Amino acid sequence: MAPVVSNEPLLEQLMRSDTAAFARVLQQRSGLRVQVLYTKIDRDRNNKPRFTDYSFNLSDSLYFYPASTVKMPIAFLALDQLNRMGISRDATMITEAAAPGQTAVYNDPSSADGRPTPAHYIKKIFLVSDNDASNRLYEFLGQERLNQQLAAKGYPQAQILHRLGISLTEQQNRHTNPIRFLDTAGRLLFRQEAQTSNYQYLVRKNPVGVAHMKGAERINQPLEFGQKNRFPLRDLHQVLRSVMFPGAVPAFQRFAYSEEDYRFLYRYLSQLPRETGFPDYNQPEHYDSYVKFFMYGTRKQERIPGHIRIFNKVGWAYGFLTDVAYVVDFEKKIEFMLSATIYCNSDGVLNDDTYDYETVGLPFLEQLGRVVYEYELGRKRKHQPDLSRFKVAYDR
Questions:
Q1: Is this structure's pTM higher than 0.85?
Q2: Quick check: helix, strand or coil at residue 334?
Q3: Measuring CA to CA, how many Å separate 73 from each of 34, 41, 92, 225, 265?
Q4: Among 25, 153, 227, 231, which is least packed by CB within 10 angstroms?
Q5: Tens digit of pLDDT for each residue in 261-310?
Q6: What secondary structure letter does DSSP report for 90?
Q7: H helices within the chain, ranges in order?
Q8: 154: left (phi over 0), alpha (psi -120 to 50) or beta
């Protein structure tokens, strides 16, 4: 069922109800490149969801750097591809190096048994937004196949062109590593040779800022993002919806998952670092809100209550801060989807490591989540939702 798109300026009304928190965003929405998409969910007597989408300053043509949010579709597509190949997500995944800039992986000390596996990579992606884990799945999918699959699922404007957290050339990102999958006895299940992408991506111009740093040198020109990743907020929102509500999206947007796969993803989309045994993320630097920006972004000393679960993926880089989430309160019987991005770079200089995440971005996303949550608390529902599908065990 396609969502109803409402023209009601609900999000702006909610923000205007708390002008102290949102005055800057309301006044500088263009300069801050703010985009918000909120989905109200109403259930019928059979618990079937009906969606109504509300937006604020949403535009597919308003570029933002998606940063680590692209790890979400990468993880989803990697699990889908493994299932289509008949390979378990718990198979050993050996990555070789065959070209300049590539690195190999033969073991993973952070896993319980030392084996690198797709399941463990997916786990690390959602728990702490691990760059290397995402890059290994990018290498498995390959640039060309990855983007072809995104287009086939209805996201032709999305472009995932490069690995994250490492500096490689355009050509190096077109080349991906040889990979072997082994069973637990070490027997070969599948060998994938090194790949070269011939993907012809859209030529675009996306200049950002007034200047950028190149090492110690300041270049008084915008930084061009035309060859960097692109993923419209509306599409990221829909990708998450297709996993949280597979029966409510067109068949071509669903993934080849079993119910057990959904349980696996729901666990790690919502699990907190302190609830994890391998890797041991129960460390001060991995506080509850480390990758949970809505409602808790600035509250680094506060524990998120167990009855609230946020199934999400965040991203932050080059001054862009983004969160794409499905929020559930099992105690109050509340559920909603919320996605937002904001550009936090008041000096306009990129690559100077001086961004306004703590003073602008995180306070905005936290308050946005809270104002939507309070609205959800106050609105009447004809039928209370049965949210049992999203309750999972978080054993360490």
A1: yes
A2: strand
A3: 22, 23, 22, 20, 12
A4: 227
A5: 999 999 999 999 999 988 999 889 999 999 999 999 999 999 999 999 99
A6: T
A7: 10-16, 19-27, 71-85, 118-128, 131-141, 143-152, 170-174, 233-244, 259-270, 362-378
A8: left
